[in-house]
Amino acid sequence: MPIKIPKLLPAREILEKENIFVMDDERANSQDIRPLNILILNLMPEKERTEAELLRLLGNSPLQINIMFLHMATHESKNVSKSHLEQFYTTFTNVKDRRFDGMIITGAPVEHFAFEEVDYWQELMEIMEWSKTNVTSTLHICWGAQAALYYHFGIDKFEIGQKCTGVFKHSILNSNVKLVRGFDEEFLAPHSRYTGNLKDHIHACENVILLAESDEAGPLLMISKDEKQIMITGHLEYEAGTLAEEYDRDTKKGGEAYMPKHYFPNDDPNEKPKHKWRAHAHLLFSNWLNYYVYQQTPYQWE
Predict the structure, then answer these.
(1) Superfamily of domain 3-294
(2) Among 35, 46, 86, 145, fewest CB within 10 Å belongs to which?
(3) Is 13 an annotated catalytic residue?
(4) How far apart are the C-alpha atoms of 71 and 222, rounded to whole Å?
(5) What superkingdom does the record give (predicted)?
(6) Binding residue per annotation — 276?
(7) Catalytic site residue from 213, 237, 239, 246
(8) Which residue in 72, 77, 55, 60 sits closest to 6, CA to CA?
(9) pTM score of the predicted model
């Protein structure tokens, strides 16, 4: 089944070339079914790339999904055109009286700041508080996951010194939880961050369950006891070349650039990296949409 997106969204052409089933408003409105309404708060600087990465995973589902993109009113995005935001995005003021079946909060390049120092932190706290009653399940990614752990559960992040970047092996800690149903006992996932969360702090919180971790990269997947909040500290949505482009960008800046671990063939940045986590990325998003959104959300919100 398709995802419903605006007809002129640039990601549409990318997805159609990959045979991802997308549908515009006119065709979707002619179907007599109850689609899922998913709100995506996109905090990433390269918004069009993130749109395509997330829509690619959300589109691999038997469910029809309506997508709405959200950006922060209290922050000026510098890497996306104003016209793109005006055409395809809205702000929290315009959706706070609505209810959504699911929500995604992405990562953001603000890890070096304390949460309270981020210019849109107050707005983000308002959105996360609103999500408790207006969203069936929220999926948080990378810095978004750290923000959720801090706001909802009081678990702070810490500076790890050298950037954690690369593709790391992870182990499943609790295979009975539906989010990781069908996962291999060990699987690969990309990370790209300068901060982390301590496993001991997560275990000490009675309202959070740690589902997967890496000996090198630390905790990856967590879920709240009430199953409304899901946190992913890595980037399973990344495409094969995303880490390479980040490394090239950091290298060109002239500062210290960390080559992603276990990523380039033979550790040679001139060789093309392979996509080794795609299957588990699709499985994670499918499990989230099925078990935590579709199976839990009311057919009609009161």
Answers:
(1) Class I glutamine amidotransferase (GATase) domain (3.40.50.880)
(2) 86
(3) no
(4) 25
(5) Bacteria
(6) no
(7) 237
(8) 55
(9) 0.88
